[in-house]
TrEMBL record:
<feature type="domain" description="N-acetyltransferase">
    <location>
        <begin position="3"/>
        <end position="156"/>
    </location>
</feature>
<dbReference type="Pfam" id="PF13673">
    <property type="entry name" value="Acetyltransf_10"/>
</dbReference>
<dbReference type="InterPro" id="IPR000182">
    <property type="entry name" value="GNAT_dom"/>
</dbReference>
<dbReference type="InterPro" id="IPR016181">
    <property type="entry name" value="Acyl_CoA_acyltransferase"/>
</dbReference>
<protein>
    <submittedName>
        <fullName>GNAT superfamily N-acetyltransferase</fullName>
    </submittedName>
</protein>
Length: 156
């Protein structure tokens, strides 16, 4: 099976939302308080994602050659990774690695970025550590109760 990578356009917002919400329900929400779910899922609605794409936020996509979307990495302000999901049955095949490389190099090329930030889910912390990110401080709890690990990466 071959994987193709490209940048999203507004027409991709519906499938991105479906993937993001499905993976979030499976891997992120079980570790979070119930109050955190509605606002988190709302930010993954097609309407919100379309708006973000139209505002210039960069959604890097991974597609299977059968036409299924299998991964997304979204970068805001060429420095903050804010949505990073791979479909469950394709975990462990290097798709997140490729998406991160593409999103990172795109931001470096566009803006000369040297520092990247993100708020990690518990399950993704080991993957980000493997990419070279380090914790920026203690766990952070948002107003809705969402618990995340802020992390950053400084390029040499
Ligand atoms: C986190 C996630 C995107 C990773 O996707 P993936 O495609 O399975 O990741 P990859 O196969 O590309 O693995 C990335 C690298 O991390 C390494 N890795 C994976 N799990 C690891 C672990 N537990 N400990 C150390 N390294 C690990 C892999 O070996 C791989 O190394 P490489 O880049 O040298 O090959 C995926 O598990 C996911 O969608 N999780 C649920 C949603 C989520 O939590 N997203 C993050 C939101 S902040």
């Amino acid at each position: 099976m071959r994987i193709h990578y490209r940048l999203a356009g507004p027409q991709d917002a519906i499938v991105i939302g479906v993937l993001a919400r499905r993976v979030t329900r499976r891997w992120i929400l079980p570790d979070q308080p119930a109050s955190a779910a509605p606002p988190l899922l709302l930010g993954m609605s097609a309407r919100v994602i379309r708006k973000k794409i139209l505002a210039g936020q960069r959604f890097h996509l991974a597609w299977c050659d059968d036409g299924r979307l299998v991964g997304v990495a979204a970068m805001r302000e060429d420095s903050h990774l804010f949505q990073f999901f791979v479909t469950t049955r394709m975990h462990g095949h290097g798709i997140a690695h490729r998406l991160w490389q593409r999103a990172m190099l795109d931001a470096v090329r566009r803006a000369g970025t040297r520092r990247f930030t993100l708020n990690a889910s518990a399950m993704a912390v080991p993957v980000y550590l493997h990419f070279g990110f380090v914790p920026s401080g203690p766990l952070k709890v948002s107003g809705t109760g969402l618990v995340v690990q802020p992390m950053h990466l400084d390029l040499p």
